[in-house]
Structure formats: structure tokens, C-alpha cells
Known about the structure:
Blueprint: H1 6-13, E1 49-54, H2 69-75, E2 83-85, E3 91-93, E4 96-101, E5 107-112, H3 126-136, E6 153-158, E7 163-168, E8 202-208, E9 212-217, E10 230-235, H4 239-248, E11 253-257, H5 262-265, E12 270-275, E13 278-284, H6 294-303, H7 306-314, E14 319-320, H8 345-354, E15 362-368, H9 372-386, E16 391-397, H10 399-408, E17 414-420, H11 426-430, H12 447-458, H13 462-479, E18 482-487, E19 489-494, E20 498-499, E21 515-516
Parallel strand pairs: 1-10, 1-11, 15-16, 15-17
Antiparallel strand pairs: 2-3, 4-5, 5-7, 6-7, 8-9, 9-10, 11-19, 12-19, 13-17, 13-18, 14-18, 20-21
Helix pairs in contact: 6-8, 7-9, 12-13
Amino acid sequence: MPKFTKRAxxxxxxxxxxxxxxxxCTGGTxxxxxxxxxxxxxxxxxxxxVTVGIAQDLDSLDPHKAVAAGTSEVLFNIFEGLMKASPDxxxxxxxxxxxxxxxxxxQYTFTLREGVKFxxxxxxxxxxxxxxxxxxxxxxxxxxxxxxxxxxxxxxEATDDTHVVLTLKEPNxxxxxxxxxxxxxxxxxxxxxxxxxxxxxxxxxSYTPQQSMExxxxxxxxxxxxxxxxxxxxxxxxVNTLVMGLQGGTLDMVIxxxxxxxxxxxxxxxxxxxxxxxxxxxxxxxxxxPFDDVRVRQAMYYAINVPEIIEFVCNGDGVATGTSMYPxxxxxxxxxxxENYQQDLEKAKQLLAxxxxxxxFTMTITVPSNYTQHVETAEVVSQQLAQVGITANLNPxxxxxxxxxxxxxxxxESTVVGIAASDxxxxxxxxxxxxxxxxxxxxFNSEEYDQVMEKxxxxxxxxxxxxxxxxxxxxxxxxxxSLWIQDLCDLVVMNPALDGVTFYATYVLDMSTIHYK
Length: 517
């Protein structure tokens, strides 16, 4: 089998590389931001503010309806639930000061924290809390929960002005993690998506689609105050333009930069490396031929070379996964699953022939064009699949179209993207493969898997739950429900005058700890 170096792959792909315009800047105003600090000296020129470059637009300002991890990580600064994510992947009290759980695991009693205010200055009341929780449970959505964990809630009752009791149908070890659902003002459904009002350390200021979102320090915050006065997120979909923004001083910080630009920025800027806390994969629509045949999916997995992809896209710094769980989930992650589909072209061809495709077939990989890592991965996967007769054509689309067509509409054959989690529960990364789950955009359907997950979600034994989650991952791997590749290497690059980045085990960008030295 020929070994592809990065240079060889670049030459090989030269004839099929996408035009830069396909994943360039979304608009002509992305580079017009007033400099906030000198990239050369780190001197502050526009007050205690920071401009952050992000690669995707926000899919919704409504915290209960946002689906993209890139949106949730930004909204983390504006909204809080009764609980909120902590850096270690757990949850800590937020709008609630504490909580208790009944012995049978069916009742959760939350005590509201004193002195919590919304960004409009109003105190958070029990009416606001009940409205928010009921909305998550589907009160405004024909009874369909906006957050799936709320389907397990049978009642919500305020016992007084400071205590709310949630009763579950069945005990659930992970239910507390769902209490990060945002608390918003009562009856704000018509305005929350245009004028977000939360309780977080930053208050929403303005949003211009495909251009920017601004927020300012909330002086009435109940907790540790933000150290910056103002944060502007600039939406710039081209990685080269993001780098130029740093070099030109129009950006102070950029998140989720690919490892391929490290050499361009590491001498001039502070570069922090972590993993992206997601699972990048070639996600297959299991409801579309020929991907409804497990032999085809397995053949494709044997056809690709994951280490080669990681080397090309991340200079070898990504972490291979053979599962829908990323490595930060230490007690659930099964690194051995990544060994199950070592590249074997002959086996791939044999499986394709058994499935009735001895000469291969033609398919489309739809990819969000604003993410260089996903585009590059799709290109390499296309070349690898060609070795067994599969012609994979790339269809780069804008992020907004990906969310509406691929994720919500399920109108696709395959896609390369990263799936992240809002909390560190095994449920979060595995539930989307349950047959009737609203997040199951892959349309995977397995009665065995559904039964294992049902047991995992209802057991009160931590050890048993862990084993069931591992059993579920094994089923997914054997069925090749998706072709999982890696947890991507992730770079945060910022002006050397800045400090205070806190890496979370989940997809969170906490701007409250960022400050100038």
C-alpha cells in the first residue's frame, strides 16, 4: 500500500482541492474591527476589551434551541442553569445554591440562590425558574422536550419561593447534568432569540449575523465577576484570515485554530494546545443506500487510514477514537476500539463485493466549509476510499446550511464534522444513536443498542452503567454506525498580553477568567 506524506497528499489533491472562495470570509467586513491591542507589543489601546475570532456563526441565541457546540460555548458566558459546568467535566451550583436527591433517586429539590439577577436588573424568581424548566420539557413545543433529559420529568413544583422539586419517572444517575439548562425570564420566548437575557458574568450587547456578537461585563453578577469589560466575537470562516487578523492586531485571540498554522503564529503569540473535546468522524446516513448495509460501512472503515488522517490534518497531534466517546471521558473511553479497523484494502473490497458493490460506488461527503480541519479530513478520506473503488465527491456548504439541511433535515449521504458534548455524561455522546432520539441525525437503528441504552439510562449502579455504556460503544463499533476518526488537536492563540485561559473537559469557552497581565 503506498504511504502518503503530507506533501504527496497535497500534490495528489491538487486537482480536486476546493477553491478558497468556498470556505473564505463570510462577508467583506470581517477585517474591519478596531484593534484592541497591538500584536507586536501587547499594549492595550481600546480599554479592557478583547476581540475573539471564531470560525462559525451562532445557530441560535435561544439557549434551549441552540444545537451547535460552537454556539453553546459562546452562550456559556451569558446563560446559567440551576447548575453550570465546571472545568473538570462535572457541574456546580449556579442559580441554585444547592440541591438534594431523595433516597429513591426520583426527587430533586433545588434551593434558589439569593441575590441572583438577570441582565435586565430583575431578580430571578420562582416563576422564571418554573417557566424555564417547563419550556425545556416542551411546554411551548407540543410537549416535545427541547432537552431530551426532561422527558423523564413527571412534575415540577415550587414548595415555596426558594425551593423547586422535580420528580422523575425513573431514577437517573446523570439527571443533575441536565440542570445546566438556562434559566431565562418568564414569558420571554418571543424575545430570547433576539435579546438574550441570562444570569451569567457577561450580558448580551449586540449580534450581527455572519459578522459579530458582542457582550459586556455584568456588574450585577452573583459570582466571581468577569475580568474583562467587553468581549467581541468576530465570525471569520477562513483560517488564513483569522491568522492575518491576529498578525494585524484586529484580533486578540482565536479559538480552534488548526495545528497546521502553529509555525505561523508561535513566535509572535501565546499558543495553548489541548484537544477539541469532540469526536470527528465520517458520519453516514444509515437510512440511505448503500450505507444501510453494515458490510458497506465496515468496508469503508477498513478502507480509511486513521493515523494517516491524523498525521495530515493535525501533524500527528490528534487522538484516535473508534467510538463516539472522546478521551476526556476517562471512565467510558475505550481506546482499544480504535484498533478494530486497521486499514485493510483487500478486506474492504471483499466486503463491498459481498454487499453487491464489487466495483464500488459514488457518494457525496457534505462538509461545513468554514472548518479547515473537516474539509482537509474529507479530502484525505476521499482519496483513501478511492483505493477500493469508492468515488467520494465533496460538497462544501456554509455552516448555516449544514445545520438546517444535514443536522435538522437529515438530507445528506455522509458528512465530516465534529460532535461535542454539553456535559460529561455517557448519555450525552451515546444517546444520539438511539433509534427514536431527536439528535439521531445519522438514522442509526438497532434494537439491541436501544435495549442496552435503556438499561444504562435507568440503572442506579455506577459500575453497571459504565459497563453498559462500554457495551453500547462496542455495538456501535461493530456496526460501524459512523467512521470515527479523532478528537482533534485544538489551538488557542492569543496576544501575549493576555492570560487566564481555562480549558474545560467539555466544549466551553469561559471568557470570565481571561485578563490582561
